[in-house]
Specification:
Radius of gyration: 30 Å
Largest sheet: none
Structural class: mainly alpha
Oligomer: single chain
Order of helices and strands: HHHHHHH
Shape: elongated
Low-confidence stretches: none
Mean pLDDT: 88
């Protein structure tokens, strides 16, 4: 016994042009191209099972994008923003690390900070210190100073 009848999709001329444009666009993501193919096939009146077989996806995938398009139209096919993992290092910690790098000498008596010594002093990982230094262009191991020679034979 067949399942429930799938939602019928009626496309406007504009929507059909946009979907076909996504198919031709070389910079479009493959996911968006597949979603466009699914919607265009569904708009032709083909059942979910046939669309799934023709495009090599599951029936659930066809059902998902058919219903998402029916609810949100073209905007429903675009990837939704994802939050990602929350930051573990705050802006205040970054600011303190940069200020410490530029304003303080290492307590160990070294001539400059290393990522390991700064990580230990700041209480964060060495890779985090390295990423912050790279983001701000900090290179504490490179000293750009000039000392005048006290040698009388030195030509200036």
């Amino acid at each position: 016994m067949p399942g429930p009848k799938p939602l019928s999709l009626e496309l406007s001329d504009h929507e059909r042009r946009v979907l076909r444009g996504w198919l031709r666009k070389q910079t479009a993501s493959q996911a968006l191209v597949l979603r466009s193919r699914i919607v265009l096939a569904c708009a032709e009146g083909r059942p979910n099972a046939q669309v799934a077989d023709d495009l090599g996806v599951s029936r659930e995938t066809v059902r998902k994008w058919r219903s998402r398009f029916a609810a949100d139209r073209l905007e429903g096919l675009v990837d939704r923003p994802r939050s990602g993992a929350p930051r573990k290092i705050t802006d205040e910690q970054v600011e303190a690390l940069v200020a410490r790098t530029l304003g303080q000498a290492p307590p160990t008596g070294d001539s400059h900070w290393s990522t390991r010594s700064m990580a230990e002093a700041a209480g964060m990982s060495q890779s985090a210190v390295s990423r912050i230094w790279r983001a701000f262009g900090l290179k504490p191991h490179i000293v750009e100073t000039w000392k005048l020679s006290t040698d009388p034979q030195f030509v200036t």
